[in-house]
């Protein structure tokens, strides 16, 4: 892989799609949590730790994607 002209495009897609997926996932999860807590307020305390755990996992996937994108952009591991 001597030609690295498409590397910035690939890194941009990696970071952008990771951010988009994380934001959409957290938005859907938060809306479902609010809907469930409105229907059954007594379950709110039991669901809250699960929501924060899933939010951390979704953010973790995005942070890993950013780290890999920065690594590809700065270190150029395929340059030779």
From TrEMBL:
It is found in: Cell membrane. It is a multi-pass membrane protein. CDD domains: ATP-synt_Fo_c_ATPE. One of its GO terms (molecular function) is lipid binding. InterPro entries: ATP_synth_csu_bac/chlpt, ATP_synth_F0_csu_DDCD_BS, ATP_synth_F0_csu_sf, ATPase_proteolipid_c-like_dom, F/V-ATP_Csub_sf. It comes from the Bacteria. This is ATP synthase F(0) sector subunit c. Keywords: ATP synthesis, Cell membrane, CF(0), Hydrogen ion transport, Ion transport, Lipid-binding, Membrane, Transmembrane, Transmembrane helix, Transport. The chain crosses the membrane at residues 6-30, 51-74. It comes from Hydrogenophaga taeniospiralis CCUG 15921. Its main location: membrane. Belongs to the ATPase C chain family. GO terms for cellular component: plasma membrane; proton-transporting ATP synthase complex; proton-transporting two-sector ATPase complex, proton-transporting domain. It holds the Pfam family ATP-synt_C. NCBIfam families: ATP_synt_c, PRK06876.1. GO terms for biological process: proton motive force-driven ATP synthesis.
């Amino acid at each position: 892989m001597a030609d690295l002209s498409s590397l910035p495009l690939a890194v941009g897609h990696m970071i952008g799609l990771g951010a988009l997926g994380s934001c959409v996932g957290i938005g859907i999860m938060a809306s479902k949590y609010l809907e469930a807590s409105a229907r059954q307020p007594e379950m709110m305390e039991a669901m809250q730790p699960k929501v924060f755990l899933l939010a951390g996992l979704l953010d973790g996937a995005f942070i890993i994607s950013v780290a890999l994108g920065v690594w590809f952009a700065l270190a150029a591991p395929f340059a030779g």
